[in-house]
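Please complete every field before forwarding. Incomplete forms are returned to the sender.

SECTION A: IDENTIFIERS
Entry label: holo-373
Bound molecule: magnesium ion
Molecule representation: SMILES string

SECTION B: INPUTS
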Amino acid sequence: MSSTIQSIESILVDIPTIRPHKLSMTTMGVQSMVIVRMKDSDGLEGLGEATTIGGLAYGPESPESVKLTIDTYFKPQLIGQSADQINTLRVMLNRSTRGNNLAKSAIETALLDLQGKRLNRPVSDLLGGAVQQHLPVLWTLASGDTAKDIKEALDLIETRRHCAFKLKIGSRALMDDIRHVAAIKEALGEAASVRVDVNQAWDESTAAKGMAELQAAGVDLVEQPTPMKDHAALVRLSERFHIPILADEAVADAKDMYNLAAAGFSGAVALKIAKAGGPVRALEQAAVAQAAGIGLYGGTLLEGTIGTAASLHAWSTLETLHWGTEMFGPLLMKDDIVVKPLNFHDNGVDLPTGPGLGIEIDEDKLALYRRKD
Ligand SMILES: [Mg+2]
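SECTION C: PREDICTED COMPLEX
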């Protein structure tokens, strides 16, 4: 009865963003994704996605390298294998290939989608079952302009699309950033949660000054203030300030989480299926964080709808997401390649229903946005 993997296609897709998205390491005007279409011997199709931020600006894998990894190295290993033996295939890829977690995440997602469609169950059921059907989603204010950001946030609060906001800082002088953040927090008031993401841009002494100022301004959370490999700085800063730190780039998988927690870190962690190498691996990391008393947050690499849905299925199985999620990627893009977009409302998003991820490709849109050679 077991079905085998018949074909795997990886497709580069470029979709413009609704506005320039300014981060400490790059400004995005387009989001590039790798969409994986995996077909089995029964004619079912599993969808996966690998997406990163700004080509090679965020991490060592680019959309183009993910496609090459899948086409050249993963595909020959996977074709002809039993599609339902997800753990066996995961172990096989981990043994044959170091790193490349974005590519692995896309494959694991496609296998889970395929399995869900075969069993007529949502992916969340394959992960033990959803405990929440509607997940909170924050919005990132990253136009680079204080007045524009305030207007954007007030509109979103009024329409109840978001009530928590993350500000991307770190590319300007410290006090310019602080003034920007404090002005936004003051304009939005107590009703909105304001957090910042520094994306590793500060050294430890700048971070210490920055955190004191942000704490005084009423900011709720400081994400990855210092370089990813400097675990000791994160630990010292988490001991020194009561404003919590969210570890993001510093923590990719369960082992990283264990090391940082064992070193004395307290605060929160951004889970990302892409960093961990897939939804299952991200949940392993969540278990370590929970055991260490570290708060959970559903993170994004600004995935489109397929990668966002895969993340939501994973996060929906967690009892508590202390800091909610940032699964707004599809809203940052001008268009979508799926038939039915995710339903964002009431400061969150609904977990998609239906077998697998619950997502269907719009073939015309895919043809429109796929990269032409
Ligand atoms: Mg981050």
